[in-house]
Amino acid sequence: MFDTMTLTKITGALCGALLIFLLGGWLAEEVYHVGDDHHGDHGDDHGPKQAYAIDVPEAGTATAEVEEGPSLEELLAVADVAKGEKVFGKCKACHKLEDGANGTGPHLYNLVDRAVGSVDGYGYSGALVAVAQTWDAQALDGFIENPKKFAPGTKMGFAGLKKPTDRANLIAYLQTIGG
Fold it and tell me: For the chain, which terminus, N or C, has the lower number of CB atoms within 10 Å?
């Protein structure tokens, strides 16, 4: 099937590729090495040194209270519709804004204060109706922040928007779409 020269070439190519791989790994370790010396100290810690420390309260000690930011109402009062339109860019792969134009998800035309699960022709998972009656600002904020946590069992695969200002801007933008 193969003659001796072809097998020699294949073996040489594999050995060359392995050598390049090993040298690349060695070079990367030298360039991105974390620690005081290149071979680690031989004391109690044999692993790489930590680049920086993050202070974490000890277990059992009182943790500082989480500082809450402005309320949703305060954020909506100063929300930027133009920024909300940009944030909507993350939604438009699955949702359309035209009335009756369902995509992977239901259309979002006239969404704010619409009854949950009320779009004709869209097959909802059923998890949404159990958590809210209408898509008011509060329900939208909770759902957009973390859909799987807000409505366990929802088929929406989006991870959510973590920034409260992004959510408020998006809700303000959605309020301008429709009636």
Answer: N
